[in-house]
Design a protein that fits this description.
Layout lengths: L3 H20 L2 E13 L9 E5 L6 E5 L7 E11 L4 E12 L2 E7 L2 E21 L5 E24 L2 E10 L3 E15 L2 E11 L1 E2 L3 E9 L2 E2 L6 H4 E5 L16 E4 L3 E2 L2 E11 L1
Parallel strand pairs: 2-6, 15-16
Antiparallel strand pairs: 1-4, 1-18, 2-3, 4-5, 5-7, 6-7, 7-8, 8-9, 8-10, 9-13, 10-11, 11-18, 12-17, 13-14, 13-15
């Protein structure tokens, strides 16, 4: 009988822990918003700041490092915790990329260049959680698959002429890796607030391009351009033959170029237990 109080306390504690574990299991849904900053940035050939006054004057060059993964991110996820510590999650999110700009100028005028991207992403991950009650730290590891486009805008102001060009490059699939650390905060029955820091390691090589706008002083030039001037295909390799040239009715060929999409950022959102 001397051990009865100890046994009662131990039994109550075990019941409490078991209930806590049961509550931490099962299906859930996330909604989140966040922002990613450039990470593992690189440079694109020909995309830099340049200025010259012409003649024999000094010329200034400035390299621009960028990642088109920088920008706002909207998303959600469906997940399932097999127990309080291990689960799986399927995330979906959309990147609204920030613009990156460069300018090249001389005595005759200047040209502004802008890059930005949009990308839909699928992100399956493994979730490792501490299983704590009020504040539940966790980590996520997985792959990320992206489908989207790289957009380029060129505004050329040369003497009295103004040319505006828009180019959209898409096709192909980006595959990379994603990890995150964060914490769940219990704010209401079946509703949790979460905040996390996310790292994305990703690059993307489009497979085709299309000029969607080309105007000079407001006059549309697209109707007068051939297919090879408007459309392009990015390939791993190709061969040119001066005796058998590619027709103007076919897209032009260029080598594929990988564009950086890596980022480090934060996400905040709500988790709803289903």
């Amino acid at each position: 009988m001397k051990n009865t109080p100890f046994k009662v306390v131990l039994t109550i504690a075990l019941i409490y822990i078991s209930c806590g574990k049961i509550a931490a299991q099962g299906a859930y849904a996330n909604l989140n918003i966040g922002y990613g900053f450039k990470s593992s940035s690189q440079n694109i050939s020909g995309f830099n700041n340049y200025s010259s006054n012409g003649g024999n004057s000094l010329r200034h060059y400035e390299q621009i490092n960028l990642s088109l993964g920088q920008g706002a991110q909207l998303g959600g996820a469906l997940g399932y915790m097999f127990n309080p510590n291990i689960g799986m999650e399927l995330g979906l999110n959309y990147l609204i990329g920030a613009r990156v700009s460069a300018t090249r100028s001389n005595n005759n005028g200047y040209t502004d260049y802008h890059y930005w991207a949009n990308q839909f992403r699928i992100n399956p991950t493994i979730v490792l959680a501490t299983g704590m009650d009020k504040i539940n730290p966790y980590a996520k590891f997985g792959v990320i698959v992206g489908i989207g486009s790289v957009n380029q805008e060129i505004n050329d102001f040369d003497d009295n002429d103004i040319e505006n060009i828009l180019i959209k490059s898409n096709g192909g699939t980006a595959v990379g890796f994603n990890s995150a650390i964060g914490a769940l905060f219990n704010i209401k029955d079946k509703v949790n607030l979460f905040a996390e820091i996310s790292l994305i390691n990703l690059s993307y090589a489009p497979s085709k391009s299309l000029i969607t706008k080309d105007e000079v002083n407001g006059v549309d030039r697209l109707p007068f351009m051939t297919t090879s001037q408007k459309e392009g295909e990015y390939v791993d390799s190709y061969t040119t033959d001066p005796n058998n040239q590619r027709p103007n009715s076919a897209p032009s060929l260029s080598l594929k170029t990988k564009v950086p999409f890596s980022s480090i950022g934060f996400n905040i959102g709500l988790r709803f237990t289903l």
